[in-house]
């Protein structure tokens, strides 16, 4: 059984020299990959890749560090992209208090507006949260009809419980790092039925390739680490996380 990479950035410039080869590898080694937008341009590029390849899907969104100049025109453009049939969700959207390129209030306002876009197009959301877990959860709890994925989940099991009915939790290469004790503890407790595997490539490369460019096929190392942490068979992790990805993105019904 082939794995799914639920979150990657194939349009990134780090793939400029060998993108075709990386995509060919996805077609051979993975069931499919989901390419995630972070602004209008990357969302458009995501859709182009998805239109060209059966085994690539797109997500369209505006990352919290890319919301400078956000206005109604941008929102309208994003909503149009989000209605494309191969766009599975609106994302990645959310809050980032680490880089703080925009004030918290502005980030929260735009996050809510983008959730409303997802509501209008009737698709899930892919959430980015960094150093902002409390505010992220408080906003999400105001939208009980909205579902989706907390990408590269950085929180605790207790935080996950607050939104577990509506959200899945993406696990990437960080789980393989030696200093990932908090994440490992959370993953021990979060049910396998609520976890997805992702690479966030070209970022967050798992061991044993840490320090090098990440790529979608490395999602295997994430799945194997989850199998180790939860003491279950690797094949079971593949089967369940693949199912979870399709449920989270509403490709199938639960």
UniProtKB/TrEMBL annotation:
Binding sites annotated in the UniProt record for a divalent metal cation 2: 128, 151
Pfam families, alphabetized: TatD_DNase (PF01026)
Record-linked SUPFAM superfamilies: Metallo-dependent hydrolases (SSF51556)
Keyword terms: Hydrolase, Metal-binding
Binding site for a divalent metal cation 1: 7, 9, 92, 200
InterPro entries linked: DNase_TatD-rel_CS, Metal_Hydrolase, TatD-like, TatD/YcfH-like
GO cellular component: cytosol
GO molecular function: DNA nuclease activity; hydrolase activity, acting on ester bonds; metal ion binding
Protein name: Hydrolase, TatD family
UniProt organism field: Ilyobacter polytropus (strain ATCC 51220 / DSM 2926 / LMG 16218 / CuHBu1)
């Amino acid at each position: 059984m082939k794995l799914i990479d639920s979150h990657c950035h194939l349009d990134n410039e780090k793939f400029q020299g060998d993108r075709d080869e990386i995509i060919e590898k996805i077609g051979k080694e993975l069931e499919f990959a989901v390419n995630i937008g972070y602004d209008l341009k990357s969302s458009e590029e995501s859709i182009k890749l998805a239109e060209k390849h059966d085994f690539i899907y797109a997500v369209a969104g505006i990352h919290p560090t890319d919301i400078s100049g956000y206005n109604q025109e941008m929102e309208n453009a994003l909503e149009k992209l989000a209605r494309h049939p191969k766009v599975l969700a609106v994302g990645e959207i959310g809050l980032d208090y680490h880089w703080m390129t925009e004030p918290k209030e502005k980030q929260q306002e735009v996050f809510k507006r983008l959730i409303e876009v997802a509501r209008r197009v009737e698709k899930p959301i892919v959430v980015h949260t960094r150093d902002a877990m409390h505010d992220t959860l408080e906003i999400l709890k105001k939208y009980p009809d909205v579902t989706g994925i907390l990408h590269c989940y950085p929180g605790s099991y207790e935080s996950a419980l607050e939104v577990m009915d509506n959200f899945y939790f993406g696990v990437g290469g960080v789980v393989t790092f030696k200093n990932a004790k908090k994440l490992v503890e959370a993953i021990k407790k979060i049910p396998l039925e609520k976890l997805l595997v992702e690479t966030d490539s070209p970022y967050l490369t798992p061991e044993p390739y840490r320090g090098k460019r990440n790529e979608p096929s490395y999602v295997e190392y994430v799945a194997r680490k989850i199998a180790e942490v939860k003491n279950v068979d690797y094949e079971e992790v593949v089967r369940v996380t693949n199912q979870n990805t399709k449920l989270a993105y509403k490709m199938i019904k639960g």
